[in-house]
Design goal:
heterodimer; A: mainly alpha; MetI-like fold; globular; B: alpha/beta; Rossmann fold; 7 helices; 22% strand; ATP binding (chain B); ATP-binding (chain B); P-loop_NTPase (chain B); transport (chain B); ABC_SmlMolc_Importer (chain B)
């Protein structure tokens, strides 16, 4: 009897992983189904009989080929470049002061939403941006902004730059999380004593073990880079835009006539991503063979170290500087009075922009915060329930579970959000803040889980055993020991959740039906208008909210545990 | 029947037998289990408190003062455990650590605070209630850990090499403090160690995890050597 109770403990905690998966994957699968139906004309709509009409209409669009090619080239190029920079930095700069500085900047860099990075970069690169101003007129002879396509260039170079700047910190974080499991210091030492160059030795001995654990984040980056909408709207080409941007334009067309074509294009986009992932996998296998070949040949690769280290450092510094300067540019524009070309700084500073935009800013900030709080609180509760169920019932995380967790990050938003919007329309949920928060949850959940699970699992289990021998119940152990002891990682995960929610553009736009206006949707919408002062205010606030969340995640535990040396951050 | 009874306790995994014990530890008695690391000492402790990993198979019973506790969860067994290191909760004060252990049946802020103050006096740590555990010395932490264990009012005490992280002088001092307090409370004690000095100081029976009687005075020989199988 008692044994049976031990085997099947009461409580609904066991259901937590299933509920979490359902909330996360349900929308993805339902959205994909909702995209399939209109693409094949299975939904009663004007001018859309069942069949392949939508696809024929899509094929007739002259921009299809260049848009699809752009999606592939910008996605693959930015991912390859970001990965190369990350790996080179890890191989060659670890232990240097530059690396320590980069580590310190990692969290702030990660917290900046994609749209803010893109807007900042646009202010740098634009013909009237800071770079042109810094060089004019003494070097360029320009007295007026030149008529050059430095932004929205047809090849998508500005977009690639923006993506690289945003994805290097993410890949670096993922790599640093995986690195301790690779026995890197000893392997490096063995390689060095055998006469290998630093980069080559690292690639032969550490990289294989490291990459195995970085694969899912890399896939997520590739899928994201191919299908990003907000960044591509701000930095990417316009005629035609990338496929994802074009789908969004069709989806938000008030006439509804292009929904079928949009759904068909979304399926094409999904196929492109799947194809690119397969190609990437093939490239991985090729790279592995090549690496083994070179290792077997005993190529010491000493010549690599001389130039690869400085180059990686330079590119990483460039990425950091681009983000930092871009954000500084946003800040200056938001308080700029008269600011003529080619002056590097405005003639006068004023708070006029802020005070004029204050009512709109306040409304958008409140809504953004509310959505972030709702999605993050739900995600934290669910993830804690999952992790606690795992701990109490001795469940082990499987590789399959990890794949499911990454699914919302790998299946492109643009492929399933149109379907989800369609379902939201049918059920009447479209345009409500609650539906938008639920859509945010799909993307907040995996990031919160990825952020919280490692420290939660690494907690010393003897604490729980010690408490149990003192007569403490699992409930008490959770609330009085594990949760307070893990306050810092929990708050950090919450800050990650806030950053993810605040940064969401496409879910807010599509599920909100244009009626849920957040800082992000407004900043992106304003970006085409060109009022840089207003854009600056929105982008700054959009960046400030996650930054505030991260600051609280650092300050609050430090305050609560100010008299507890054992709770200080390990140096 | 009082004391801690290990009734045909057998713990195996695959073909390996880790624990095979059939013995009674009377109230106030100290039974020493000796063996080098990796020979089932911590497996035995996990079996007694009920935290065996699923990979292990256990048969037999654990009885405490005549009551079968084998199927009870750890928290309901009333068996205290002192770890190799103190496992004080870093986010609670010294007093908070002790209060965590004090049964909820002792009600009233005042009564609880008095019990904790008394315990601290007994440990020679009067007035330490508000201290941060991280600021205590190794010996002070060890004493707090013991008082925490005793405040939960256990009916038996397990010691998992509880002195191995302390340096030699302190070790003898803390060891005698722990063993004296345990005897005063009349607790059956199982001491797990690989150190001959600990075993000698405990002055009781010495068994291997497989129930083999070991000589009481393995003097001049390291525990590891005497137990080579």
């Amino acid at each position: 009897m008692r044994a049976a109770m031990k085997l099947f403990p009461r409580g609904r905690l066991r259901l937590a992983p299933r509920i979490t998966l359902a909330l996360m994957l349900g929308p993805v699968l339902a959205g994909l189904a909702g995209t399939l139906a209109p693409a094949f004309g299975l939904v009663p709509m004007p001018d859309a009989p069942p069949g392949l009409a939508a696809f024929r209409q899509l094929a007739d669009w002259p921009g299809l080929r260049p848009a699809a090619v752009l999606s592939l080239t910008t996605g693959l190029a930015s991912t390859a470049l970001a990965l190369a920079i990350t790996l080179a930095v890890l191989a060659l700069l670890q232990g240097t002061r530059a690396f320590a500085l980069l580590l310190r900047l990692l969290s702030p860099l990660l917290a900046v939403p994609h749209a803010a990075v893109a807007l900042g970069l646009a202010f740098l690169l634009a013909p009237s941006g800071w770079i042109a101003r810094a060089l004019s007129p003494w070097a360029t002879g320009w007295h007026a902004p030149p008529d050059l396509l430095t932004l929205n260039d047809p090849a998508g170079l500005a977009l690639v730059a923006g993506l690289v700047a945003k994805e290097v910190p993410f890949l670096l974080l993922m790599a640093l999380a995986a690195l301790p499991q690779t026995d890197a210091p000893r392997r490096r030492m063995v390689a060095a004593t055998l006469g290998y160059g630093t980069a080559a030795g690292w690639a032969y001995t550490v990289l294989p073990a490291l990459y195995r654990q970085m694969r899912l984040p890399v896939y997520a980056v590739l899928a994201y880079a191919m299908t990003v909408v907000d960044m591509a709207m701000i930095l990417g080409p316009t005629r035609p835009p990338t496929l994802a941007v074009q789908i969004t334009l069709w989806m938000t067309d008030p006439s509804l006539a292009q929904r079928g074509m949009a759904a068909a294009a979304a399926l094409l986009q999904l196929a492109l991503v799947v194809g690119a992932l397969l190609a990437w996998r093939a490239a991985e296998l090729l790279a592995k063979r090549l690496l083994i070949c070179r290792a077997m040949a005993g190529r010491r690769g000493l010549a690599l170290d001389g130039w690869l280290g400085p180059l990686a450092g330079l590119l990483a510094a460039l990425a950091v500087a681009a983000v930092a300067l871009g954000l500084a540019g946003l800040a200056v524009w938001s308080v700029a009075g008269l600011w003529q070309f080619p002056d590097a700084l405005p003639e006068t500073l004023t708070l006029n922009t802020w005070s004029r935009a204050a009512p709109d800013l306040q409304a958008a900030t409140t809504l953004t915060l509310g959505l972030a709080a709702l999605a993050t609180a739900t995600a934290i509760a669910l993830v804690l329930a999952c992790l606690e169920a795992e701990a109490r019932h001795g469940l082990r995380p499987t590789t399959r579970a990890l794949w499911l967790l990454y699914l919302p990050l790998i299946v492109p938003q643009i492929a399933f959000l149109p379907g989800l919007q369609f379902l939201a329309l049918v059920t009447g949920a479209e345009g409500t803040a609650l539906a938008v928060a639920a859509a945010h949850l799909v993307f907040v959940l995996p990031y919160v889980f990825l952020s919280l699970a490692p420290p939660w699992r690494a907690w010393d289990g003897r604490t729980a055993t010690a408490a149990a021998t003192l007569g403490a119940s699992p409930f008490r152990i959770f609330w009085h020991l594990r949760l307070p002891m893990l306050l810092r990682p929990v708050l950090t995960a919450a800050a990650v959740g806030v950053a993810v929610s605040v940064g969401q553009y496409l879910p807010t736009l599509l599920i909100g039906g244009g009626r849920v206006v957040t800082l992000t949707t407004e900043a992106v919408a304003l970006s085409s208008g060109g009022n840089r002062r207003i854009i600056g205010t929105y982008a700054l606030l959009q960046m400030a909210l996650p930054a505030l969340a991260f600051a609280m995640a650092i300050a609050l535990p430090a305050l609560v545990f100010r008299n507890r040396r054992g709770m200080a951050v390990a140096a | 029947m009082t004391g801690l009874v290990l009734d045909n306790l057998l713990v195996t995994s695959g073909d390996t037998t880790w624990v095979a014990l059939h013995t009674t530890v009377a109230r106030g008695e100290v039974l020493t289990i000796m063996g080098p690391s990796g020979t089932g000492k911590s497996t035995l402790l996990a079996a007694i408190i009920g935290t065996l990993a699923p990979a292990f198979r256990m048969t037999g019973k654990v009885l405490l003062d005549g009551v079968d506790v084998t199927d009870r969860p750890t928290r309901a067994r009333r068996i205290g455990l002192l770890f190799q290191d103190d496992v004080l909760f870093p986010h609670l004060s010294v007093g908070g650590n002790l209060a965590f252990a004090l049964p909820a049946s002792i009600r009233g802020r005042r009564a609880r605070r008095d019990r904790i103050a008394t315990a601290l006096v007994q440990a020679g740590l009067a007035g330490f209630a508000d201290r941060d555990p991280a600021t205590l010395s190794g010996g002070q932490r060890a004493r707090v850990a013991l008082m925490r264990t005793l405040l939960a009012e256990p009916r038996a005490l397990l010691l998992d090499e509880p002195f191995s992280r302390l340096d030699a002088d302190l070790r003898a001092q803390i060891r005698s403090f722990v063993l004296t307090r345990a005897r005063d409370e009349g607790l059956p004690v199982i001491l797990v160690t690989h150190d001959a000095e600990d075993a000698r100081a405990a002055a009781g029976r010495i068994l291997s995890p497989l129930g083999k009687e070991l000589p009481k005075k393995p003097q001049g020989v390291e525990g590891n050597a005497t137990l080579a199988r």
